[in-house]
Amino acid sequence: TDQHAAADALRARRSAVIGPHSPLFYDQPLHVVSGQGVWLTSANGVDYLDAYNNVPHVGHCNPVVVRAIAEQAAKLNVHTRYLHEGVVEYGEMLLATFAPHLERVFFTNSGSEANELALRIARQHTGARGLLVTDFNYHGNTTSLAEMSTGLVVREPLGAHVRPLRIPDVLSDPRSQDVVLAEALREAADAIASLQAAGHGVSALLFDPLFTTEGLLHPPAGYVQGLAALVHGAGGLVIADEVQSGLGRSGSAFWGHELHDIQPDLVTMGKPLGNGHPLGGVVTTAALLEEFGSTNMYFNTFAGNPVSAAAGAAVLRETLGRELQAGAARLGEHARTALEELAAERPGVRAVRGTGLFFGLELVDDDGKASADRAKRVVEEMYRNGVLISRIGPKDNVLKIRPPMVFEQEHLHVLLDRLGASLDAVTEPEAVAR
Ligand code: PMP
């Protein structure tokens, strides 16, 4: 069609300027021109239900956020070495959402930058370099984050100071939770001992509280708490990466680490914080900020400038004012019940994962093996039917459903309806033979 031809031409131009390797979703990529709430509109005028994007936390082109950005941009934007009340006010608002011991914030422009800074703070505090991470993690695109990643495609060799931990998962391990827990904590203790024996020591544990990139794993109760205690016991710091799990996403907690009842030393943030405006940060204790700040001149030109602060404050006001965390809890419950039913009727779905407005369906083939192929076909089929989702996990077989937080019951109906139909469509014999 003409539309496909136009999209192909744009894709060719894109490749000619930024190269062919910058990833795009879908066999026939989506060419978007506008967004509103939970909807994205394509160049050919089709509305897609967005059940994938967490960056537009309070909705695409949220008018409150747009106005805040525009008004501040029209008044003043400047680097961060002048006093500005809006910046201070946003910091105060943000810190008020954290436990009392987390009382200082460094602003950054991205999640990568936040994690990089947190690692630096931990390294200087402990004098150690050793890092505990999860197997199949993704924390960003800098050198130190690439050399600790065992997940998405990275050519950087795994650092000698990095120990990836297998995260136990009660949904796929038939043994008792006690056995699973004890074994996983023993492995963590061994990893710590190995870092110490190699002379690296323990600088930090860096983890995503919802284990999202890892495939939305569900560790046994007490695992994260036990792990944090081991790390603290070895003199290391605990860093919770809330880039995906924060700002009420999980429904039951405003920050994901609260689900595990732990006290992290550092919390890193990004993606949803500015609703698409580049804004991230590191929240930490007064003591750690003082120690780092007094021995380094940490300067960040753009991070937390007046416009970014206006964006962040508007997102926070919308999130709190519209009680989006409670909404995610409520809708997440409905979604879970419906997804459990959908899974029970279909042998191709092995487990329903996630919490709040972040869920996953683990797909298997007819022999019960992880099926990336089936997951890819469901994602493509959903796209053809006007709903955007994706897939994650080391086997790429977990459907990733993580809509903007302004998703409502009527949108959930559409999503579930298309999901059921798409799952059925890809398991029909002719589709399998394709
Ligand atoms: N941490 C996590 C858990 C992420 O998912 C991502 C991005 N996918 C990052 C960090 C990196 O954030 P950014 O792309 O803003 O640098």
Protein architecture, described:
With 434 residues, the protein is α/β, with parallel strands linked by helices. It folds into two domains: 31-58 and 324-352 and 360-367 and 382-415, Aspartate Aminotransferase, domain 1, CATH 3.90.1150; 63-321, Aspartate Aminotransferase, domain 2 (3-Layer(aba) Sandwich), CATH 3.40.640.10. It is built from 13 helices and 15 strands. The strands form three sheets. It has a seven-stranded mixed beta sheet with strand order 4-10-9-8-7-5-6, sandwiched between helices. β7, α7 (223-233) and β8 form a beta-alpha-beta unit. The radius of gyration is 22 Å and the shape is globular. It starts with a helix and ends with a helix. The structure holds 4'-deoxy-4'-aminopyridoxal-5'-phosphate. 4'-deoxy-4'-aminopyridoxal-5'-phosphate (PMP) binds at residues 110-112, 115, 138-141, 208, 241, 243-244, 270.
Protein structure class: alpha/beta
CATH class of the largest domain: Alpha Beta
Span from first to last CA?
A: 22 Å
CATH architecture of the largest domain: 3-Layer(aba) Sandwich
Radius of gyration: 22 Å
Number of self-contained structural domains: 2
By CATH, the superfamily of the largest domain comes out as Type I PLP-dependent aspartate aminotransferase-like (Major domain)
- Helix fraction by DSSP (H/I, runs of at least 4): 40-55%
- Largest sheet geometry: 7 strands, mixed
Mean pLDDT: 96
* Strand numbers in spatial order across the main sheet: 4-10-9-8-7-5-6
GO molecular function, one term: transaminase activity
InterPro entries: Aminotrans_3 (IPR005814), Aminotrans_3_PPA_site (IPR049704), PyrdxlP-dep_Trfase (IPR015424), PyrdxlP-dep_Trfase_major (IPR015421), PyrdxlP-dep_Trfase_small (IPR015422)
Organism: Klenkia sesuvii
Family: Belongs to the class-III pyridoxal-phosphate-dependent aminotransferase family.
